[in-house]
Amino acid sequence: MKVSSFPIFTLKGVPSEAEVPSHQLMIKSGMIRKLSSGQYSWYPLGFKIVKKIEEVIRQELNNIGCREILMPTVQPAELWQDSDRWDKYGPELLRFKDRNNREFCLGPTFEEVITDLVKNDVSSYKNLPINLFQISSKFRDEIRPRFGVMRAREFIMKDAYSFHESSECLDKTYELYKTAYKRIFERLMLDYTIVDADSGNIGGDVSHEFHIIADIGEDDLLLDKNMNGMNIEIAKVKYSEHDLSKLIKKSGLTHKKGIEVGHIFKLGQKYSKKMGASVTSNKSEVIDMFMGCYGIGVTRIVAAAIEQNYDDKGIIWPSSLSPFNAAIIEIDGNKNKNVRSLAQKLYDIMQSKKIDVILDDRQVTFGNKFKDWELIGVPNIFIIGKKESEEQLITFQRRADNKKEIVNLDDIEKLLEELSI
Q1: Do β-strands 393-398 and 380-384 pair in parallel, antiparallel, or remain unpaired?
Q2: What is the pTM of this model?
Q3: What does each C-alpha distance from 225 to 219, 253, 254 come to in angstroms?
Q4: Residue 215, Cα to own-chain centre: how many angstroms?
Q5: What is the percentage of the chain residues whose pLDDT exceeds 90?
């Protein structure tokens, strides 16, 4: 990839409304641009990161037998009325009518749609269990969108659903998803924790939240020394106390702020019973299916990861999330054939090794290029100027610690192996 065919739009300043580091850095680095309150367009730089997250999710869900589908974002009111959530969900559900005066909503979640889909094709226990997921845009009419994509009205989310003959089967599958989620967040190289949680308006008897630990998190967590614990809603009920400081003292747990990036639920028969999603059991009895649902906020992960990985110069991406694993900066390559030739050689070497690299061939100053890549946060930066080209040398700098070293072109393959990029 070369910058000449991969548009980058960095900014020096940021809008005053960008309160938190992740929001500021996503705008400055050219990942996103605001369309309206709580809605953002994603430029190639940001969308590339979104796709990396999606691919990790796909791989881990496929590994546990969950298959991808796609459902309509616009949902008919009848389904929500069947589940008794049309009036209960609240103003976050954006309702509207079509030209025929039929009521619809923009989907914030898809329990009704998936239940309707499966019940029409599954009638026997022999077809169970079934595990399906989608990665798509959702819309919640937030009263106060804030922190950029952290609490947006429109966002990308992975939602998975499982259907079972028995609660025992649901329990086993629930643990499979919990393990898969652990692998997802570990592969994304994020500092996370799992807490007992309240099921809210999704429903069900048991649920767990996955949180990225960050000072700007909106959720209060009470954790033990092993980072296990519960969210504030569960703690209030468990300890019969609503004051946070008294809760901390009473529980003996440590207070942390978290950004919720995943939530899994045992729904039981809440939706299947109301919507008639039943099967014939192995005892020839008609039973309502047991369900689970499992969500991950894909675009929220991008912002949450930045809150854990930045400094005064910009983002410091872990290799798992960086839009590129390496950036090559050529200094005045348009004026110096030797510089451009050496930069191209290095680029070709990296491409042959399947390294995700970008060559900055823009006609701008070295200072502008270097500041841009520090801001964007690519972990490995390779610099080639006139001096380097004359001696077949490459200046290498790590973004994480800013350490530099000079490497001979003949030794570059050895360095790339050591870096494991």
Answers
A1: antiparallel
A2: 0.94
A3: 18, 8, 8
A4: 18
A5: 92
Contact 31, 45 (CB under 8 A): yes
Q: Strand 192-196 to strand 154-164: parallel, antiparallel, or no bridges (unpaired)?
A: unpaired
The C-alpha atoms of residue 416 and residue 421 are separated, in whole angstroms, by 6
What is the model's pLDDT at position 201?
67
The residue written with tokens 């529980």 in the block is 251
Lookup: tokens for 153: 């009205």
Per-residue pLDDT tens over the stretch 239-282: 999 999 999 999 999 999 999 999 999 999 999 999 999 999 99
Nearest one of 101, 47, 93 to 74, comparing CA atoms? 93
Residue 184 reports pLDDT greater than 70: yes
Reply yes or no on whether the pLDDT at 295 is more than 90: yes
Residue 122 CA, distance from chain mean position:
32
Rounded Cα distance between 416 and 380, Å, is 10
The average pLDDT across 32-40 equals 96
3-state secondary structure the chain: CEHHHCCCCCCCCCCCCCCCHHHHHHHHCCCEEEEECCEEEECHHHHHHHHHHHHHHHHHHHHCCCEECCCCCEEEHHHHHHCCCCCCCCCCCCEEECCCCCEEEECCCCHHHHHHHHHCCCCEHHHCCEEEEEEEEEECCCCCCECHHHECCEEEEEEEEEEECCHHHHHHHHHHHHHHHHHHHHHCCCCEEEEECCCCCCCCCEEEEEEEECCCCCEEEEECCCCCEEEHHHHHHHHCCCCHHHHHHHHCCEEEEEEEEEEEEEEECHHHHHHCCEEECCCCCEEECEEEEEEEEHHHHHHHHHHHCEECCEECCCCCCCCCCEEEEECCCCCCHHHHHHHHHHHHHHHHCCCCEEEECCCCCHHHHHHHHHHHCCCEEEEECHHHHHHCEEEEEECCCCCEEEEEHHHHHHHHHHHCC
Torsion angles phi and psi, residue 271, rounded to 5: -85, -40
> With contact defined as beta carbons under 8 Å apart, do 370 and 402 qualify?
no
Cα–Cα distance for residue pair 134/160, rounded to 1 Å: 6
340, 279 contact by CB (below 8 A): no
